[in-house]
């Protein structure tokens, strides 16, 4: 019994030796940590950017008060082809007793130009001479300004909604202010008609093109409202949001194949998945993963090999004290594991800092938990694999070398 306890205590000591070695001789392992961190940064940043691009397009949808969306039966996501439906579906959706509001998603696009201190009736050439910024093409989103409307994002303040209720008013995301050359209170031309910037939104960056928000009434006033027989996807608000899954299934049964009802989470997941169905996107991400693995394995392997070689006399001393090769191998593998853990922490930290800097330039780097877990496990496997490749150097830890 005593021998068994001593053996367990010895194993715990040996296992803790790996972490102690990393803590006290961290400089020797810094290259391996940074290699893993940069490999993780490469994969996280590239994948996060593409996920972020999708989220920038659908932020106003995912943050809306809608519990269910109705689209064409063949639509796979908001970015997967036409998703509009016939206008006659609106009253049909109201037939469900849980539905309290149905509104079509509408939007448009047009030219935008700041005209502060510039004659709006002047020609484009004359406005340029007067110092007006160049025209920019913007993507236009709409809200209905009735209190509690399903189209109002949940993070919009009541003051912003009240401001957009006024005719010919728009809101601009804070990341687009410099691009459009405007600030709060400025006048601008939208498709040749004068509008006023009455609000600034936060958290809706778009790296593809600037976005503005206006009311559905203002969109109608500028002649861009969709008044035809087909409308955009239907946004549905329920009496009890917790019944969204059940109601979506019932609406699908009622529609008999005429439409497809999605819960907000289902649509968000579909939008994210649609980003990875593009062949060129998968090639880019796959290339980054392969490059990251090559960099991580090569540098981590050589760094661990060099560090073990530098400590070869210490390993020889342990062998002279009766520590077997199996225990020494466990030390190296555990040391590799801890190098991987530190590399994961560094990778996440660097990516987070990069995401903060990118957000200032209207670029979203999305870091979903699933992505962090997958990349983290991958980095640890790279570190442990590199440690296994370095085990051969332990054969040089001969106790007899201590007598030389």
Folded structure, characterized:
With 404 residues, the chain is an alpha+beta fold. 52% of the residues lie in helices and 15% in strands. A hairpin with a 2-residue loop joins strand 7 and strand 8. The relative contact order is 0.19.
Principal-axis shape: elongated
Secondary structure class reads: alpha+beta
Give, in order, the helices and strands. Answer: HHEEHEEHEHEHEEEHEEHEHHHHH
Distance N to C terminus: 39 Å
How many helices does DSSP assign? 13
Low-confidence stretches: 1-15
> What can be said about the biggest beta sheet?
6 strands, mixed, barrel
Q: Report Rg.
A: 30 Å
* Strand order of the biggest β-sheet: 4-5-9-6-8-7
- How much of the sequence lies in strands comes to 15-25%
Mean pLDDT: 79
Please bin the fraction of helical residues: 40-55%
Short note summarizing the structure:
This protein is α+β, with helices and mostly antiparallel strands and 404 residues long. It has 13 helices and twelve strands.
List keywords for this structure.
404 residues; alpha+beta; 6-stranded mixed β-barrel; 4-stranded antiparallel beta sheet; 13 helices; 12 strands; 15% strand; elongated; disordered N terminus
